[in-house]
Amino acid sequence: MAPVRPVPGAGGGVWPVVAAALVGVWAVGATVGGQTVTWLVEQVLLVSGLDQQDWLWPVTGVVTALVVGAPAGLLAALPRSPAVRAAGRAWLLGAIALGVLGLLRAVPPTLPEVYLAGLAGVAGLGALLIRRLGGPGPADRRSGDPAVPDPQRVPDRPERVRAEPAATGLAVAGGLALLLPWVWLGALGGVLETVCGLLASAAVGWLAATVLDGRFWAGYERPAASRSGVPAPERPVGGARLVLVGGLVAGVTLALFAGGIGQSGAQLAALLVLPPAGFAIAALRVTSRARSAAGADTPDAGLRPVGSAPVGWLVGIAAAGPLTLVDPEEVTLLLSGARDVPFWAAVAAAGSLAVAVLLGIGYGVGLGRRAAPRPRRPVAAAVAGVLLLATGAVYVGLGSPGWHGERLFVVLKEQADLTGVVAQTGPDGRQARGREVYRRLVETAERSQADLRRELDRLRLDYTPYYLVNAVEVDGGTAVRAWLSRRGDVDQVLVSQRLRPLPASGSPTRGDEPAPAVPSWNLRMIGADRVWSQLDVTGSGVVVGGSDSGVDGRHPALSAGFRGGDDSWYDPWNDSRSPADLGGHGTHTLATAVGDQQVGVAPGAQWVGCVNLDRNLGNPARYLDCLQFMLAPFPPGADPFTEGRPDRAPQVLTNSWGCPAIEGCALDTLQPATSALAAAGVFFVAAAGNTGSFCGSVDDPPAPYPDVFTVGAVDRQRQVTSFSSRGPTPGGVSKPDLVAPGDDVLSALPGGGYGRMSGTSMAAPHLAGVVALMWSANPALVGDLETTRRILLDTVSPAEPTNPSEPNTDTCGSERNIIGAGLVDAYEAVQAARHLG
Fold first, then answer.
1. Does the N-terminal peptide bond of residue 701 adopt cis geometry, omega within 30 degrees of 0?
2. β-pair type (471-475, 490-496)
3. Which residues are catalytic?
């Protein structure tokens, strides 16, 4: 006897259907809402400079699982309708999966292999447990003669049916179609990360196939009844109802799965990719024409259901997009106004959404109709093959082929001993100090790294050695990290984030204002214009170094000040050979320090530049590349260990950047570098950060370091801005050291124009320019960091510690943790420097 199948909706009336609809809407709303709100909360924490809470995502997953699983569990147990119970069971399992998989987000995004391997393991184990422990499907057992088939009864276990090869081929084709936007717009990470991502995608597909199996679809596959009222299994199964209703219920289930996979941000893309695929999956449930009871094809012959393998193929391939082709760290960062990874991930997800809609319509119309022709295996295989070739062609021709995984930043325990370096001052004395510091740093690194380098060469691992911090940047994933961490000569192993390429580079910020006719308000506030006009000091004879997004070397405000030569520009990100700026931030900050055209504090000073930010992000190695260049500049392609020129080092450095944990830095990572620069007599200026007005927000290196001069920001009213970070530092040091104008500052931008920006990034170069003026006025001060610092702190003018919109702002223990010593005064500082003789 043919297997008995349910009549959906039988035995319960309309109310179970209404309840199921409400629970489905609630499940989608709770999932999408919970994931979106938590992501927004994380963005607010990030922008505010507050610590990321490791428990936030796991709690969100568990709470969502509870609020969705409770009503879904009732649907699975109470109604008599097999279709409603099938929906409840699938949604309950989906909610459990979301809660359990969401716990894995406690793994930091800097450990993608660990997260993806965990996702693969947990999803695979979940699929195995459901297969082993899952009981009978939705049933409505009635008393009566068991010999008489009941059209409203479901067998304990529905017929096990192998997947029709044609359906599997079409599922693979559908998954590849959903993947196409991702291979075009995304990029792969490292080899191990990619392998783990593919395993995780396959496990998620297997889990989806296990939940959306025959027990689920039995509730929506309706046979046509004979004249006697007994179901005739040879009649059409499913049809439009299967595609529409079954696809909708499957889509809700996939939404729950999507909410639990991927790091913060990636799951939002998955929520657009997976749920719409439910309709295409439903259409693939019916793909082949069955024989009639007489054994011959008849016009009435129906379509028989196929196994659940197509679900796994389609979902597994589609999930590979957000899991393998998106950087798990960058996708967590929403950079204001930037077309960065979150933007392109959203574009790829929107493309997959459009493809999923077309698939649902195409497969539904082509396969779900009553008189649909039987799809042939060769045709399905050909379609899958064409899509596979198209995916490969898009990846190679339009995408970003290759491996773009993270590297490891290995800090050794031994750091150079710089005690006893004679604190000589003046231009010649500072150069002598620089040479001695450079010699000691290189000698220590060469000796202490020798054994590690031999091992890396033996293992054929690519690496880059550093000396300013005794460290090595190494290619490698989790296994290499574990090996390095066990070495006795290694202090710590950090992730040195490598940015994955984007399909299109963003354009730099350009200004739409003309050059100012008179010095702007910020220069007048600190008295820089009076230094030029009354003291005849412009910064000549001093070189300022800027490490940032780059510099537009052809800008009228900066072109005349470039020092020139083969050792005045370095770009470790893009290998540009002449000053250029792909962002705009670096041009704006350096011009504030040394720019002409009424925008720079020290327009007579020269400058050198280095690119340590790409797309406003960096990593420990790129920051160190530039700091090494500033200690001992070198020609393009030269070895910094042997061809550095400490005599050519700039005397003052302006640094409007910070290295937070998400970029790979620990609090003390760059401390040896700033200490070495101080020992060499280089004055290091750093922005305090833009994570105020919270106390203790000066916490991203290098701003908290005691040998760095840290600058906060004030507005036109001399009041500390709300965004200016405040102390004390994690080590208890009072920061910032002082404040400078940082709100609505007019300066140069790439392309020859001018524009206004706000931030402590704009405040720091004011201080660097003032030091250039002081050392130009009295060259004997060059390299005398202690005296220069004392003059700066003793000659400040008043500043207001609170922002007018926040009259009750906490004083953070002391006003010095908000305004430092006060507002820098260029005129008084230069006067004091002159009077030293």
1. no
2. unpaired
3. 548, 585, 761
The domain defined by 521-798+806-835 folds into Rossmann fold (3.40.50)
Query: Structure tokens of 289?
Result: 């024409």
Q: What is the mean pLDDT of residues 826-830?
A: 98
Please name the residue ranges forming H helices in 103-246: 112-133, 165-185, 191-211, 214-217, 240-241
- Domain range summary for the chain, segments of one domain joined by +: 15-136+164-397, 407-496, 521-798+806-835
User: Residue 521 CB: number of other CB atoms within 10 A?
Assistant: 15
Q: How far is CA 752 from the centre of its chain?
A: 32
Sign of the C-alpha dihedral, residues 187, 193, 199, 203?
Answer: negative
Task: For residue range 638-672, list pLDDT tens digits in order.
Answer: 999 999 999 999 999 999 999 988 888 999 999 99
The 3-class secondary structure across 63-88, one letter per residue, is HHHHHHHHHHHHHHHCCCCHHHHHHH
C-beta atoms surrounding 322 within 10 Å: 32
Helices 247-259 & 15-48 angle (0-180, nearest 10): 30
Q: Give the C-alpha separation, 592 to 602, whole Å.
A: 8
Q: What are the DSSP E strand ranges found in 277-382?
A: 286-289, 303-305
Neighbours of 390 (CB within 10 A): 15
What confidence category does residue 453 fall into, taking pLDDT thresholds of 50, 70 and 90? very high
d(CA 431, CA 318): 59
Query: What does 270-297 look like in DSSP terms, one character per residue?
Result: HHHHSTTHHHHHHHTTEEEEPPPTTSS-
List, in order, residues 6 or more apart from 545 with CB less than 8 Å away: 607, 608, 609, 610, 630, 649, 650, 652, 653, 654
- What is the rounded CA–CA span in Å between residue 52 and residue 230? 61
Peptide bond into 736 cis (omega under 30): yes
Nearest to 461 by CA among 447, 437, 479: 479
Q: What is the mean pLDDT of the chain?
A: 87
Tell me the residue type at 566. Answer: D
* Residues 254/275, Cβ–Cβ less than 8 Å: yes
The pLDDT of residue 206: 96
What are 112-146's pLDDT values in tens digits?
Answer: 899 999 999 999 999 999 988 864 444 333 333 33
Residues 180-196 pLDDT 10s: 999 999 999 989 999 99
Q: What is the pLDDT of residues 774-813, one digit of tens each?
A: 999 999 999 999 999 999 999 999 999 875 444 455 678 8
